[in-house]
Amino acid sequence: MGNCFRLTVHLPRMPRTTRLQRVRHKIPHTSSGKLQLGQRALAILLLLVISGMGIMYLVFVNVRVTKGFEIQSLEKKLIKLQQSQQELQIQAAQLQSIQSIEQSSAIQGYIPTHDARYLSSSGVALKGQ
After folding, report:
1. 82: in domain
2. Are the C-beta atoms of 57 and 65 separated by less than 8 Å?
3. Termini Cα distance of the chain
4. Which of 23, 37, 76, 128 could be 41's S-S partner, Cβ–Cβ 3.0 to 4.6 Å?
5. Residue 86 within a domain
6. Containing domain of residue 78, as a range?
7. pLDDT score for 123
8. How many CA atoms lie within 13 A of 22 on its CB side?
9. Is Coiled coil tagged as a keyword (predicted)?
10. Which positions ≥6 away from 94 have C-beta within 8 Å?
């Protein structure tokens, strides 16, 4: 039991590269250094652009519809307020009418006058009769 076996394997060392160099190595470039994309990458890019535009369109339409509902509810509220204002104006006119004032004065104990005499404005003081 005292015998031990040792196995060593020597692997060739890879030259040290930076992360940026490894990433650049994976992306295909042309001889002039410009990025070269395949048809699959262009299709994915086009799909992403179209999807982004679709999402932006949906957000825009959603905002517009929401504002439309808010405007509609505010218009309904405005119509109700205008109707209540008209009712209050009619009620105020009724309360200010002569019959209403006469009825309220009779309730309060005022005596109505039947023979009223008015003074003419001649500019001269009147003598007592």
Report:
1. yes
2. no
3. 156
4. 37
5. yes
6. 39-105
7. 61
8. 6
9. yes
10. 100
